[in-house]
Cyclin-dependent kinase 2 homolog (Tribonema minus), 305 residues
Amino acid sequence: MIGNRYKKIEKGGSSAGIGSGTYGEVFKCEDTQTGTIVAVKRIRTDLEDEGIPSTALREISVLRELQHPNIVDLQDCVQSAGRLYLVFEFVDKDLKRYMESHEGPLPSLTIKSFMHQLLSGLEFCHARGVMHRDLKPQNLLVSRDGRLKLADFGLARAFCPPIRPLTHEVVTLWFRPPEILLGSQTYAPPMDMWAVGTILAELAAKAPLFPGDSEIDELYKIFMLLGTPSEATWPGVTKLPDWNAIFPTWPRLSLRHAAPGLSDAGLDLLNKCLVYDPAARVSARRALKHPYFDGFDPATPAPPM
Ligand SMILES: Nc1ncnc2c1ncn2[C@@H]1O[C@H](COP(=O)(O)OP(=O)(O)O)[C@@H](O)[C@H]1O
Ligand SMILES: [Mg+2]
């Protein structure tokens, strides 16, 4: 029992969590006051006596302010036995598991619906000065009725000016934008839009777009598809801290093979998310107005699982 209210639901006799990642373990629980199912995230902290970790405080205050149908609802916050628990609405599964459990390619309407919901949640965040900074399929939750919600704002941080240099390790490698890989210290909303592009391609291909196993491998995988950037394609790139004049020069390839089945409009949106120059990358707001969504009714839920 957590905080005299939330009862762990045991699976096959064990109380193994339903998921764990960077910051904590997540348990499926019953809210004994309402009888509803919730997801309780125990925040991992090495120094349990030293109070609530600042990462958690950040997540709490950010989430409390962000109430939107495409953002996971933080319902409660409990301190028990020196530990901190965050209570969220329970959402059936994350997008990674959704893709794994879905046989064959995802229907194009499902991809469009997920993209629209992802961008709607993100536009809401960006308009409030909040970046997600760790967008990836494991941090997007999908309900049984096809609703997608942004989760895991553990690394999110208000980007209200002045933009300060933050820590280097913020985004999982595969979704990390080239400006960060090249040592830029400026974290800005376009970094989330790069991740959106890689997620769109992953939805279409059902495989990660740039599955690099090191920073340099990640960078080279990007260069091999999009062409090695230059001052012509990305003004200022050669001034970035980790730019190297001896990077091999690869030509740009078509994105069509990277995102099979995506319509021309979808490919165009993908291209606009994967623009090298962060300043020229499409914003969430503009992406929602892209012709890819022409005629799309946001009220249409994605087909059920
Ligand atoms: N509200 C929720 N409902 C159902 N499952 C969840 C919920 N929140 C998280 N999970 C599962 O737990 C995993 C880890 O949660 P997350 O919030 O991403 O924590 P971390 O900071 O440890 O990555 C997610 O990838 C997802 O599979
Ligand atoms: Mg996570």
User: Anything to note?
Assistant: Residues 6-89 form a domain with the Phosphorylase Kinase; domain 1 fold (CATH 3.30.200.20). The longest strand covers residues 24-31.
